[in-house]
Specification:
Layout: H1 2-11, H2 14-20, E1 27-32, H3 37-50, E2 52-53, H4 56-65, E3 73-80, H5 89-95, E4 99-103, H6 126-129, H7 134-142, H8 160-166, E5 170-174, H9 187-205, E6 211-213, H10 221-230, E7 234-236, E8 255-256, H11 263-270, H12 273-281
Parallel strand pairs: 1-3, 1-8, 2-3, 3-4, 4-5, 6-7
Zinc ion binds near residues 80, 175 and 293.
């Protein structure tokens, strides 16, 4: 079904028209996760051809100094710090495309698992596990053989060496420690996840952390307050829409493109039309989304 929508929006010229008019004066943030090298090659080349790709830090500099940004400015982000992200490096270097990768500080550099992709058996439960209190989620995950601190035989996240290798080409930022759904956490857990992830990433990898990506795009006023207290400059969501020089920096919007396997999908999702249509048709309950992690 989605493929038909992508093709219709692309070949009718609607996606093109939207990109060249509505999107032109905006700053668009895209969210990817676990993209294979071949898709990265095609997707990033497409984005570079049709947008002015800028780094997240360039956007923040422009907000600070109130300077103009290029037309169709686009910020490319990846959440989680999946092991496959290492294969992006040669593509990023060749195309000279800046990206930000948001890392789970206690999963990268270890053999720990991301809870939402621990094994095949638990995957059908992921969406319902996002909607229960954090303690209960962790208890239920134990039945699937998952605990946060345990290391497993297979690796899911980037290693410390890979982060070191990629540092020159990639802006690394925080995606909390273990990727809980923040509004489902008690105050002390939320505080630890938001504050300590920044501290650990800075100490362990000598990174300069100023941005928090809320896991699953879910956040509350409390989480924004904690992010400010921790010294972050901004927070990124998966709320649908565009950004500008006067946006609320702790509610920056992003379009989730998953890992785009076709150019139709990328074109339609990157211009924002798909998410805006979907949002109109089906508004998720406040604060929670069914988007990927
Ligand atoms: Zn995530």
């Amino acid at each position: 079904m989605s493929n038909i929508i992508y093709k219709a929006l692309r070949y009718s010229g609607a996606a093109w028209l939207w990109r060249e008019t509505v999107q032109r004066g905006k700053v668009t943030f895209l969210l990817f996760h676990d993209m294979e090298a071949a898709d990265a090659e095609r997707n990033l080349a497409y984005l570079k051809r049709h947008y002015s790709v800028i780094g997240l830090q360039d956007y923040l500099d422009a907000v600070r100094s109130k300077t103009r940004l290029p037309r169709k400015a686009l910020v490319i982000t990846f959440d989680d710090g999946h092991a496959s992200n290492r294969s992006l490096l040669p593509v990023l270097e060749r195309l000279q495309v800046p990206v930000t990768i948001f890392l789970c500080s206690e999963v990268v550099g270890t053999q720990r698992h991301f809870w939402f992709r621990h094994n095949e058996e638990m995957k059908p439960q992921v969406e319902s596990l996002k909607r229960i209190p954090n303690e209960e989620r962790l208890r239920k995950l134990e039945a699937f053989g998952f605990t946060q601190e345990q290391e497993y035989s297979d690796r899911q996240a980037l290693t410390a060496n890979e982060i070191e290798e990629m540092k020159g080409a990639v802006d690394f930022q925080s995606h909390t420690c273990f990727h809980p759904i923040l509004p489902q956490c008690g105050d002390s857990t939320a505080r630890h996840e938001i504050i300590d992830s920044k501290k650990h990433l800075e100490e362990r990898f000598q990174l300069n952390i100023n941005t928090l990506s809320y896991p699953n795009g879910d956040y509350s006023e409390r989480d924004i307050r904690l992010a400010k207290e921790a010294g972050y400059t901004c927070g990124v969501t998966v709320d649908s829409g565009y950004n500008g020089l006067h946006s609320d920096l702790f509610r920056l919007k992003r379009f989730s493109v998953n890992d785009a396997h076709t150019t139709e999908e990328l074109m339609v999702k990157a211009c924002g039309l798909y998410a805006l249509i979907k949002h109109k048709l089906h508004k998720p309950p406040y604060g929670f989304k069914t988007s990927p992690q």
